[in-house]
Amino acid sequence: MEFIDTVIGPWTIKEWAIGLVIFGVLLQIGTTIKHKFLADKATGNLRKARCPACRWNGKVSKFHHTCPKCGNNIVRA
Ligand SMILES: [Zn+2]
Q: CA geometry: angle at 32 spanning 26 and 34, to 5°?
């Protein structure tokens, strides 16, 4: 097992391998946090609303201004 002590650039092969594993773990953690953050953001944009025309009641994106059922303007609850 001498090859793992071969120096490539600033590190030996063994250190490169350890570095790659740590990098992979960090990348995995980063992806998990990003997905959680995006999911929170998506639900955070939902607002309660109701439709005065067809009496629909529910949650829509805050950028959404029409009733998903009949297409009339909705009222924020
Ligand atoms: Zn409606």
A: 100
